[in-house]
Design brief:
Elements (H helix, E strand, L loop, with lengths): L3 H5 L3 H4 L9 H15 L8 H20 L20 H11 L4 H7 L2 H6 L17 E4 L13 E6 L2 E3 L1 H15 L2 H13 L2
Antiparallel strand pairs: 1-2, 2-3
Helix pairs in contact: 5-6
């Protein structure tokens, strides 16, 4: 559901997202160029309802698909512009609610449904005896408010428990790496390798 990127492209808060600190500088420039290309021709205030309608139709399409029984999979389009690894999935869940899904349906779109789709539900997708235990512990109930998925207290992944201190340390590391010469060099090299 990335249709909101065009709709929000003229919003300074969207473009100056606080999570930009975790993104390499050249990639931020690349995102600005893509935003410009995707909104070219809609620079006038009177043209922007077209982008808003495109966004609303995306929500309606998702709602209809869900009503027809299509299993919705949350996805962050992680290589897309203004999308942040891990972080944007929480925004995606909020968008699914705007499309008419319930909190439970939105949560299943990020847990149960992908496990079913990728045929790995014997090991993932639900918490049950005998399944691989990768999960997050949150402080507030997401069934009451989907934004509560962001109240992460612990992450249990690959047989290791990460507490809030560990998670803060990881975020600090990612922030430092995003602005490092080594990551910029890798970004440039990966762009060159693409043909």
């Amino acid at each position: 559901m990335s249709e909101n990127q065009e709709y929000l492209a003229f919003n300074p808060e969207f473009n100056n997202n606080q999570n930009n600190i975790y993104v390499e500088n050249l990639q931020l420039i690349f995102w600005k160029i893509l935003n410009w290309l995707h909104t070219k021709g809609y620079n006038e205030e009177t043209d922007r309802p077209v982008l808003e309608n495109y966004y609303k139709y995306g929500l309606e399409t998702t709602k209809m698909a869900n009503e027809f029984g299509v299993k919705i999979l949350a996805g962050t389009d992680a290589l897309d512009r203004n999308v942040y690894y891990g972080i944007s999935v929480h925004e995606e869940l909020q968008e699914l609610l705007k499309a008419g899904l319930s909190n439970e349906e939105a949560l299943k779109s990020a847990t149960y449904n992908p496990a079913q789709y990728y045929e790995i539900s014997n090991d993932y997708g639900t918490i049950e005896v005998g399944k691989i235990a990768d999960f997050v512990v949150i402080e507030k109930n997401p069934l009451k408010n989907i934004k509560n998925t962001q109240t992460i207290k612990f992450v249990y992944y690959n047989s290791r428990l990460y507490n809030t201190g560990d998670l803060t340390q990881m975020k600090t590391f990612v922030k430092q790496q995003a602005k490092s010469f080594g990551i910029t060099s890798k970004f440039i090299w990966n762009m060159i390798k693409r043909k």
